[in-house]
Amino acid sequence: MIRIAPSILSADFLRLGQEIRATEEAGADMLHIDIMDGHFVPNITIGPFIVKAIKGATKLPLDVHLMIDEPDRYLKDFITAGADYLTVHVEASVHLHRTICWIKDSGAKAGVSLNPATSIWTLDNILSEIDIAIVMSVNPGFGGQEFIPGAINKIKELKKIIKERSLNTLIEVDGGVTPDNAKAVADAGADILVMGSAFFNSTDYKTLTKNLKQLLNG
Ligand code: DX5
Ligand code: ZN
């Protein structure tokens, strides 16, 4: 079953509590939370304090995507805040294996994310250790960007390797996913679709989610 993870980056932050409730009621599977530090990516978003507040407002699993330099410095804060899935970028991690082990030992699911220019083979030695691989289909930093078509082949190749090795690693695709390309992304091998602007700019979250699930899961 393909899961839908709306990214609150495109939510109305003045009404964040209502937006989260509406997302949950719409039938989303998890909540994607984008953490940006103004170093690894040009933009700055939110920190553990807000993640903790969100945790108290929803039963949805929190899928926390760290787009920050030196992620190790903040892992504990985000786990304590309530991250169920915690993802770091391969480009920002020096001791990735240690980082992944630390996240898993803390009881969360561990993810690793790849920028569009980063090869899937950077995951070769870590793939069996991680719960989620995020294939970025935009350059991270902003919502509302265009899907980079080259991501489709990356997803296919990564799926092939995961199958060959009989792993349970899930592929999450993040950036520019819309109802128009969702089927192609899922058919390529995605298990989780992040959807920011396409979700929160829609007028009816429930109908959108229902139609997506029908399209993707039958
Ligand atoms: C991009 C973020 C994405 C973003 C997705 O840096 O990691 O999660 O919010 O938003 P859309 O779906 O609008 O591309
Ligand atoms: Zn993200």
Structural class: alpha/beta
Shape: globular
**Which ligands, by name, code or SMILES, are bound?**
D-xylitol-5-phosphate, zinc ion
Percentage of residues in DSSP E strands? 15-25%
Tell me how many strands there are: 8
Helix-strand sequence: EHEHEHEHEEHEHEHH
Task: Summarize the biggest pleated sheet.
Answer: 8 strands, parallel
- Helix segment count? 8
The helical percent reads: 25-40%
Strand order of the largest sheet: 1-8-7-6-5-4-3-2
Mean pLDDT: 98
Which stretches are low in confidence, meaning pLDDT under 50 for 5 or more residues running? Answer: none
**Distance, first to last CA:** 9 Å
State Rg.
Answer: 16 Å
Write the layout of secondary structure elements.
Elements: E1 3-6, H1 16-26, E2 31-36, H2 48-55, E3 62-67, H3 75-81, E4 85-89, H4 96-105, E5 109-114, E6 132-136, H5 151-164, E7 170-174, H6 182-188, E8 192-195, H7 197-200, H8 205-217
Parallel strand pairs: 1-8, 2-3, 3-4, 4-5, 5-6, 6-7, 7-8
Helix pairs in contact: 1-8, 2-3
The protein binds D-xylitol-5-phosphate and zinc ion.
The site of D-xylitol-5-phosphate (DX5) has 22 residues, from strand 2, strand 8 and helix 7.
Summarize the structure.
It is built from 8 helices and 8 strands.
Give an overview of the whole structure.
Helices cover 34% and strands 19% of the residues. It has 8 helices and 8 strands, in the order βαβαβαβαββαβαβαα. It has an 8-stranded parallel sheet. Helix 3 links the parallel strand 3 (62-67) and strand 4. Helix 1 packs parallel to helix 8. The longest helix is centred in the C-terminal third of the chain and has 14 residues, at 151-164. Bound molecules: D-xylitol-5-phosphate and zinc ion (ZN). D-xylitol-5-phosphate is lined by residues 7, 9-10, 32, 34, 65, 138, 140-145, 174-177, 194-198. Zinc ion binds next to strand 2.
